[in-house]
Structures
1.
Amino acid sequence: MRHISVAAVVTGSMLLAGAAAADEVTLRGASAFAQGTAFSRPWEAFVGYVNERGAGVLQINVIGGPEAVPPFEVGNAVQSGVVDLANVTGAFYTNLIPEADALKLSTNTIQEQRANGCYDYINQMHQEKMNAYFLARTGDNVPFHLYLTKPIDKPDLSGLTIRTTPVYRAFFEKLGANLVQTAPGEVYTALERGSIDGYGWPIQGILDLGWDEQTKYRVDPGFYQVDVNVLVNLDVWNGLGDEQKALLEEAAVWLEEKNAENLEINKVERERQAEAGIETIEFTAEDAETWSSEAQEAGWAAIEGVNPEAAEAMRGCFTAAD
Ligand code: 173
């Protein structure tokens, strides 16, 4: 009798342990970008993917966008665990990882970075400096542009006041602009009031934000490559079970594959901008070359100024192998 009851107790506790490992976890998520706009859409798709497949395993509860956590605070919220995961660009958490601003300088894809070791380097950097697991990157193939309310005819921004974030700072500064940093949510009003003559933003999203109403010109060519990343608080990540981690990793691969859609989305956005009356400013071939090379050089010089070793490591793996 005694023997049997011990066995029953052991079996029972093993079942309990098994049940505990499989308990559904709900993670609180936030996005630095407003719901329904260009750099929120991939994140929303990611959340949908996880929630559809994660019944009994893991669910994501999105607490909101920039109205819930101010964009430049999202990094702090992930680090401290105020949120469990977030959709945010490196430029918004340079207070925690100044080197994260280099992510925009990559000219290869996240798939190539996973293959060449760059992803591991970046993930390690996020773990050490920010207590965050770098789960996924979106934004490949999406360039940034300068948008203006007044025309220019050469790569010279002197006399112009331009809205910036860390993304554009070194480049626009080198071209002589007077810079004002704002969160995306303040751009429309700044344009309306005439307190800025233009702003940096990617090729996607202007119409979602209504900024086309206040924008006259887009300067081509674009420069850099958007990074909008899904980061998970590291303590939360480490506390997940294998099945939960596997679901998030699978969703990350799926999300990153969607980056290939960006070329087509960019094309449609260019057409929509033209239809909205935004004129394209194109420089001479020589000036266009100056524009592009100054952007890249200013970007790397800024990272080298912050951390030469990290700049060298990332430079080595941010370019596609020939
Ligand atoms: O312009 C910005 O606010 C910015 O830095 C950014 C970065 C990635 C995607 C969209 C905007």
2.
Amino acid sequence: MQKMPPKILVTRKLPSAVEARLSERYDVRLNPDDRPLNRAQLSAAMARYDALVSTVSDALDASILQAPQRRVRMIANVGVGFSNIDMNAARTANIIVSNTPDVLTEATADIALLLILASTRRTSAAEKKLRQGDWRGFSVVDDLGTSVQGKTLGIIGMGRIGRATARRAHFGLGMQVIFYNRTRLADPVKVLGFAARQVDSIDALMGTSDVVSVHVPGGGAGPLISARHIAQMKPSGYLINTARGDSIDQKALVAALVEGRIVGAGLDVYADEPKVPDALLQLDNVTLLPHMGSATAEVRVAMGMLAVDNLDGFFDGSGLVNQVF
Ligand code: DGY
């Protein structure tokens, strides 16, 4: 008797080449409308499918992962981050989880660099003025931003994307780099290709950086960058976040921006996506992007293909390329 192919639920629309590859090998349910699934649909899926291909917008919490009559044994998450998945609950339920690192490193660092430049050069406010027909022509004193050359970039989280951002900022923009990382980098010059100083705490970084860029995974019990940390920033400072919105105390950040305690921010991620606080939408001193760090056609295909590699490795027993635990 022929073996039935594993049943796979793909929670969001994927690039067509990835969906075609999935359909060749699996009994796959796609999401052509790309409508996010609600809690009830995700819970029901746990009992109907052998695996999920999920992504960062699927909140897979303990009650979903431990749904009764669970059949799902593997979750191939499309994204390097997996803070959408309660990893303790997955472990308890014996569900294997994979992610898609590396392939999105450069694209995400590009967006970090874009946000560094957009916020320090105030391009969002300037473009808005032009689009509204309020540009009066060239002025020597209007639309002034801040130069970053020779300024200090403080990187929080010197993993792959933090390093790629550091290199761009140093070699491309002439910035000096300091960084905080949970573990000590034995030889930053070897790892980065230039000298960058590692500091021992986030406190030591906030007050000495002209621009702070966040590159940590998120999903902790509380925000790693707290109101106290934000209060330590220079009044001339900028905060950039391309990682996860819950890594920063968003309320405190908004208050600092509204009250002018820091000059600006560049954000690609938010605490409760897709909600963006109204106060942020009103501000001229922030550049806001819709979580698009890895959003290039090439990278999204590569992420999808890597998720399928992980799925294949699980079901053919050859092992996962990127098992999270
Ligand atoms: C990730 O991969 O974690 C990004 O946030 C989505 O591309």
